[in-house]
Design a protein that fits this description.
The protein has about 425 residues and is α+β, with helices and mostly antiparallel strands. The protein is about 25% helix and about 20% strand. The two termini are about 35 Å apart. Catalyzes the degradation of hydrogen peroxide (H(2)O(2)) generated by peroxisomal oxidases to water and oxygen, thereby protecting cells from the toxic effects of hydrogen peroxide.
Length: about 425
């Protein structure tokens, strides 16, 4: 009996600008095996075209159209079979199928993210509703109705991979826009501010969210490190007030907003630029869970809510807005109101810098392979497209390095080239 087997992670190759972050060489799964090989070109390119498919095609193949094979594409009679020396003898080292199977199994997990370890995600699209060619040459904002596919990963921040979805914690809200000009990663949170404005503080702060180095107890049993940090870093007060307010425990990912937090720059075709902050506001309405009821929900409450909403056709959506500010306005804002556009603990007053709608985000497709499509997806603020640039925000500048660097550690095998980082 033939069975399907997932392709080996080490046989991946890159196909730019396709919807999915991971692309595999899938010679071990193919339709009409004998007819395919019979009609195959004797040229290398013809052979490759007959043997290779991108991830999406592989993922959507029906089990009836697949055969069980080793990672190099050779059909194998049964997934449980092994080679032995005699009926009850020892196993043979020459049994490539068994060695290959165990080797893949030993490597089928990756380290969890140091931050944002617990997460959920889905796929969808962005549609431009109000073009802004006066502000940027970015193609996705160039014309009304322009669409591009995207993927979103939501997450808690401090918790481990198995932690509770209803913890009082900021939520990550990372969007990967797959535009005609490349991938743009908008890596934000559900709060418009953060605990710090100095990048060197970030590792120290995150350590306060983790287990105590001596007792190995989490924050639920020993929160001393967390409050010790906050008491010595008063710039965190704005974020603390948000975190311990009504929105501190969102009722699932569908009922929260997203914010860039950082200041970015938009550049138009004349080379003129403005500062910008990006907001994406939920169209499902803001909902939150009272602290006393948080433990009444499933540990995977947000994942269940997102997945089953999409499955039944109730597609969540957000409206994308921007605030803009000229360099001169930024100087005046500092001189008159002491608001620094590069300070992650500040917000821009919306009466002075009103929101401008530019588009909408819709999630309409669940992942079929969570590990491949969500766990291994890699976001970085350094993934930019023409017309969008980073500002001098020091925390953003540090993230431009830190995000791709952590993914090099987390998901890039030592035997793979640097260019094989998943995007």
């Amino acid at each position: 009996m033939w069975a399907r087997r997932a392709p080996s992670i080490t046989c991946r190759f890159n196909l730019p600008f396709l919807r999915h972050p991971n692309f595999y060489h899938t010679s071990n799964i193919f339709k009409g095996y004998h007819s395919t090989t019979a009609n195959m070109s004797n040229k290398f390119t013809g052979y490759q075209n007959a043997q290779s498919r991108d991830y999406v095609e592989d993922r959507d193949t029906k089990s009836q159209e697949t055969i069980y094979a080793t990672s190099n594409g050779a059909p194998h009679p049964h997934p449980y079979g092994t080679q032995r020396a005699g009926e009850n003898g020892p196993l043979l080292l020459q049994d490539f199928h068994l060695v290959d199977l165990l080797s893949h199994f030993d490597r089928e997990r990756v380290p969890e993210r140091v931050v944002h370890a617990k997460g959920s995600g889905a796929h969808g699209f962005f549609e431009c509703t109000n073009p802004i060619p006066d502000l940027t040459v970015a193609d996705l904002f160039s014309q009304r109705g322009k669409r591009c596919p995207l993927s979103i990963r939501f997450s808690t921040v401090g918790g481990e991979s198995g932690s509770h979805d209803c913890a009082r914690d900021p939520r990550g809200f990372a969007v990967k826009f797959r535009t005609d000009e490349g991938n743009w990663d908008l890596v934000g949170n559900n709060t418009p501010v953060f605990f710090l404005r100095d990048p060197a503080k970030f590792p120290h702060f995150i350590h306060t969210q983790k287990r105590h180095p001596a007792t190995h107890l989490g924050g639920g049993d020993d929160s001393t490190m967390f409050w010790d940090y906050l008491s010595q870093n008063p710039e965190a007060v704005h974020q603390v007030m948000v975190l311990f307010g009504d929105r501190g425990i969102p009722d699932g990912y569908r009922h929260m907003n997203g914010y860039s937090g950082h200041t970015l720059k938009l550049i138009n075709k004349k080379g003129e630029w403005v500062y910008t902050q990006v907001h994406w506001k939920t169209n499902q309405g803001i909902k939150w869970i009272p602290a006393e009821k948080a433990n009444d929900h499933s540990p995977d409450h947000s994942q269940k809510d997102l997945y089953y909403s999409i499955e039944k056709g109730d597609f969540p959506s957000w409206t994308l807005y921007i605030q803009t500010m000229t360099p001169k306005e930024a100087e005046e804002l500092w001189e008159k109101q002491k608001i620094n556009v590069f300070d992650l603990t500040h917000v821009w007053p919306q009466k002075q810098f009103p929101l401008r709608e530019v588009g909408k985000i819709v999630l309409n497709e669940n992942a079929k392979n969570y590990f491949a499509e969500i766990e291994q997806i890699a976001f970085s603020p350094s993934h930019l497209v023409p017309g969008i640039e980073p500002s001098a925000d020091p925390v953003l500048q540090s993230r431009l390095f830190s995000y791709p660097d952590t993914h090099r550690h987390r998901i890039v095998r030592p035997t793979l080239a640097h260019d094989d980082i998943l995007v």
